[in-house]
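hey can u check if this looks right to u? its 171 residues, i copy pasted from the old doc so theres a chance i mangled smth
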Amino acid sequence: AHVILDDELIGKSNIEIMGLKPGKHKIRIQLDNFEIIDEEIDLKDNGKSTVDYKLQRKQGKIEFKSEPPGALVFVNKFPVGRTPITINSDLGTLQVDLQLDGYANVSKEIVHLSDGTIHEESLQAKPSKLTVITSPIGANLFLNEKPIGRSPIVGLTVPGGRHVIRAELAE
């Protein structure tokens, strides 16, 4: 953290300052993504004084949305709820994971720099295996109006989601 004494940058934290005159001095301690400390200290005549400060991380609201909604949200490996959800979180870099049954997991590092951040994800459905058996066998099969062969078809990999299957028996 930067240490500023009487409006002059004197170095980084854990610093020993020699030769200060007794009396009142302004001290400022600042570090990105942490609350700034601004205080006045009163040095006595004995020539030595120690000050300790604990910096507090800045926080802000972040909203998580997903399509489809209902994904479980993890922030820095801790579950925080399901989308859509708004939470208070430390500013800075966050590890975000979204999980929803039937969809590929999303894992990202995001930078949360200000209050009111919105993070949106479109989840991708996992591929599925399709088996089509007709009676009688041999029907022409179509998936979303595209020919895929004759029945029976076993274990055809298709993208996750909704599909239209049509079977036509040749005359």
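The chain has a mean pLDDT of 90.
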